Amino acid sequence: MKILVCISHVPDTTSKINFTDNDTKFDANGVQFVINPNDEFGLTRAMWFKEKQGANVTVVNVGGAETEPTLRKALAIGADAAIRVNTAATDGFSVAKQLANVVKEGGYDLVIAGRESIDYNGGMVPGMIAGLVDSNFVNNCIGLEIEGTTVKAVREIDGGKETLTTELPLVIGGQKGLVEESDLKIPNMRGIMMARQKPLTVVEPVEAIAETNATKFEKPAPKGAVKLVSADNLDELVNLLHNEAKVI
Amino acid sequence: MSVLVYTESEQGKFKKVAFEVASYAKAVADQLGTSVTAVAVNVEDTSALANYGVDKVLSVKNPVLDVFNAKVYADVIKQAADKESSQVVILSSSANSKYLAPLLAVHLNAGYASNVVALPSNTSPFTVKRTAFTNKAFEFMQINTAIKIIGLSNNSFGLVESSGNATSEAFSPSITESGIKVESVDKVTGKVAIADADIVVSGGRGLKGPENWGMIEELADVLGAATACSKPVSDMGWRPHGEHVGQTGKPVAANLYIAIGISGAIQHLAGINASKVKVVINIDPEAPFFKAADYGVVGDAFEVVPNLIEKLKAFKAQQ
Ligand SMILES: Cc1cc2nc3c(=O)[nH]c(=O)nc-3n(C[C@H](O)[C@H](O)[C@H](O)COP(=O)(O)OP(=O)(O)OC[C@H]3O[C@@H](n4cnc5c(N)ncnc54)[C@H](O)[C@@H]3O)c2cc1C
Ligand SMILES: Nc1ncnc2c1ncn2[C@@H]1O[C@H](COP(=O)(O)O)[C@@H](O)[C@H]1O
């Protein structure tokens, strides 16, 4: 089984978010970048398929050379090879188009992407890849088992979960639950050394026109001070929630 | 030309979110000077949509559609959009809508903006405001394609009633092969789902152990709320994963979010910040959550929560 894991390179979850160029560009200054958390769950699940079922795992990113440390980290975690599509990630559609091309060229059986990236939160790349290559698609995937070409997947739904069966080729939008938090892999010294020997191929992009573009960013308005209510006066809290906030 | 809106239902009845997306679609249609067509799947009585500005309902009835399938549903909506020559297609932010939206976008060659929180700020070029960086910022996104898909963030527009008449038309799209079979659906009955909830009551590590969740559930019960938790609480197995909210868990955009024994770490706040009103109950006055909340009680949850339950019961009894 050939697996492609799509890795989005995103600001660490603790990052302060700022913009430059008159609020039109994300300010990467001083920001630590990491593997998108949803992709980390997917990558760890891919490692399981590699260890238990002999799968071959390639990781891919669409982005500039600055994303290579993130791909190296994925190699150190255990992926066999990495691909970087050499173009700036503009919108979800154009990224999906690049990734769909990688999928077609490489003949992958399973594409693991994340439910959403924590930077632009598009929540669209995996579904668009599936639409573009016409394969099966499971979003919000929290369980995945594969025997031959038969897939059993679990999808999180609003208020519960759903068990599905389908066939490879498949694209998933993965998230926490795909593996346990405690099973997430951290690169060790040996992995980091081995990653240096593994191939990181840079491929040039195919033509893809962005369908959307960000024109401006804005930070949420600063919050007013909290209204404190004494623990002995909870009637007041009920009163405020009813009469002032009008939420109960 | 029209604005098309997919109005979701469950067991033959519209979900509340259907009326919110319909209200929003009506406002967008007014901006564009056009009308609103809704797609409803297996809904017995669609007349309620007229109260939210829908002009025409394409009513699809087919037992195959009783089970949700993203590919099949995306194809049904595509056929409706083609038939109506829709310029704008509006969806909610439910798990199902977010599942089908990118498939629909590919098939309609449409640009898709998810997590949209306001009416288009401009219709030419078509520009919408959406959340990005997990609620740490807003993005103004221009959609450059002929057809635009908008995924509206829950509770961001609200319900806007408008009187009118909606004509209902039977619509029989062709049904595609799906490739995916739903074997079983596992839904906790009698509980409000976080995504559908107006109020969410959430507990953190300050509650000390799973055995103490009785009061959280009781508080949620009194308020008709969903229950949620912080990440460590689900990691430790005190609560199911499905209740984990935050940047790496479920997003919450409720009208009221009550955080009990939760410190307010940046990753937690990012996921729940889209909620309108936030209440924090924490024993530590220095807890960062107090900086993000609207109302706060400094106190021991084991005293405050049972007390608050009594006060709320008394309040509800008077209503
Ligand atoms: C990559 C990454 C992603 C993450 N994603 C998420 C996420 O999506 N969601 C999330 O929640 N976290 C997330 N976290 C974890 C986050 O950083 C915090 O560790 C977590 O939110 C803390 O949970 P907590 O507030 O329940 O626990 P704690 O931080 O331990 O806080 C417990 C609070 O309870 C209070 N308390 C104690 N006793 C009482 C009492 N008797 N009455 C009232 N209050 C009491 C304490 O004062 C304290 O403020 C993430 C972390 C990382 C690194
Ligand atoms: N530039 C990118 N390169 C590789 N994969 C990406 C990229 N952007 C998004 N993805 C994948 O698509 C998922 C969803 O991203 P998004 O649609 O942007 O929310 C991510 O979790 C990644 O798996």
Can you summarize this structure?
The complex is a heterodimer of chains A (248) and B (319). With 248 residues, chain A is an alpha/beta fold.
Can you characterise this structure?
The complex is a heterodimer of chains A (248) and B (319). By secondary structure, chain A is α/β, with parallel strands linked by helices. In chain A, 29% of the residues lie in helices and 31% in strands. Chain A has helices at 37-53, 68-77, 92-106, 125-133, 189-197, 234-244; strands at residues 2-6, 9-11, 19-20, 25-26, 33-35, 56-62, 81-85, 110-114, 136-147, 150-157, 160-167, 170-174, 200-203, 212-218, 227-228. In chain A, the strands form 3 sheets. Chain A has a 9-stranded mixed sheet, with helices on both faces. A two-stranded antiparallel sheet of chain A has the order 2-5. The model of chain A has no long low-confidence stretch (mean pLDDT 97). Chain B has 319 residues and is an alpha/beta fold. Chain B has 2 domains: 3-170, HUPs (Rossmann fold); 194-318, Rossmann fold (3-Layer(aba) Sandwich). Chain B has 8 helices and 18 strands. Chain B has a 7-stranded parallel sheet, with helices on both faces. A 5-stranded parallel sheet of chain B has the order 15-14-16-17-18. In chain B, α2 crosses α3 and α4 (214-223) packs parallel to α8 (301-318). β15 of chain A pairs parallel with β18 of chain B, so a sheet runs across the interface. The complex binds flavin-adenine dinucleotide and adenosine monophosphate.
